[in-house]
Design a protein that fits this description.
Blueprint (H helix, E strand, L loop, with lengths): L1 H4 L1 H13 L3 H10 L13 H9 L3 H28 L4 H16 L12 H11 L1 H18 L2 H19 L9 H13 L1 H9 L7
Helix pairs in contact: 2-5, 2-6, 3-4, 3-5, 4-5, 5-6, 5-7, 6-7, 6-10, 7-8, 8-9, 9-10
């Protein structure tokens, strides 16, 4: 029973369970009446929300897409900020970050299926490596406007975060960059089909 009352364990469970909440799926079903798990790329992320909802309600699609990004990001940020306020150490904070991203990508509520982790990764990185994340977010925005390919823009933004944080040692105080790299690896891994399509020139643009 001591295990279940350990503050670290409670935060780890909260991070995974909250990270697992499929906000994109819930928003699309509630406000647009569509099931994004059976349409488009079948992902629960903002890009698929935008694509699927746009087919029936273009004016609502952008709003739901933005709401999905914000809520998916907050899944990671909120738990970390609460843990910070309670004086949890850096190692615990990074474990919370990893579990929040794992929850989004492998949701317990969706049979261990889920999204690709970009927004949730952004949410945990902004709390832990803020300067590098702002650089990554700017890279993401510029790439999205120029390339109009969501997955490629996201991966370029993620790469910018990792490179910037590594070079600046931004926010890292645990003697290892491994947790930051692990989060990036999870997100890259979930994007393998997109990467293959990008290489083949078959990845769809977001218009």
């Amino acid at each position: 029973m001591d295990f279940l009352t350990n503050p670290n364990v409670l935060f780890y469970l909260a991070a995974y369970l909250i990270g697992s909440i499929p906000f994109g799926l819930l928003l699309a079903k509630t406000f647009a009446g569509v099931d994004i798990k059976s349409q488009g790329s079948k992902s629960i992320g903002a890009t698929n929300v935008l694509r699927v909802v746009k087919e029936t309600n273009p004016s609502l699609a952008k709003k739901l897409g933005i709401a999905t990004v914000i809520l998916d990001a907050l899944k990671g940020t909120v738990v970390i900020l609460i843990a910070m306020s309670m004086g949890m150490n850096e190692q615990t904070l990074w474990m919370i970050a990893v579990l929040a991203v794992l929850g989004h990508c492998y949701s317990i509520y969706l049979g261990l299926e889920g999204g690709k982790g970009v927004a949730t990764g952004l949410g945990v990185y902004i709390a832990l490596v803020p300067v590098a994340t702002l650089i990554g977010a700017l890279t993401w925005i510029i790439a999205a406007k120029v390339l109009k390919i969501s997955s490629l823009s996201s991966l370029l933004g993620l790469t910018a975060v990792i490179v910037s944080a590594t070079l600046m040692n931004d926010g890292l105080d645990i003697g290892s960059n491994a947790p930051m790299y692990l989060i990036a690896f999870i997100i890259y891994y979930k994007h393998i089909p997109n990467i293959v399509r990008i290489i083949k020139g078959e990845e769809k643009k977001v218009i």
